[in-house]
Amino acid sequence: MPQLDKLTYFSQFFWLCLL
């Protein structure tokens, strides 16, 4: 599921921005 993978990637980027 590419969508799920994209979501995970986005989440990771979001957390990185928060940090």
TrEMBL record:
This is ORF165. GO terms for cellular component: mitochondrial membrane. Keywords: ATP synthesis, Membrane, Mitochondrion, Transmembrane, Transmembrane helix. It is found in: Mitochondrion membrane. One of its GO terms (biological process) is ATP biosynthetic process. Residues 2-18 form the ATP synthase YMF19-like N-terminal domain. Its main location: mitochondrion. Transmembrane segments: none annotated. InterPro entries: YMF19-like_N. Belongs to the ATPase protein YMF19 family.
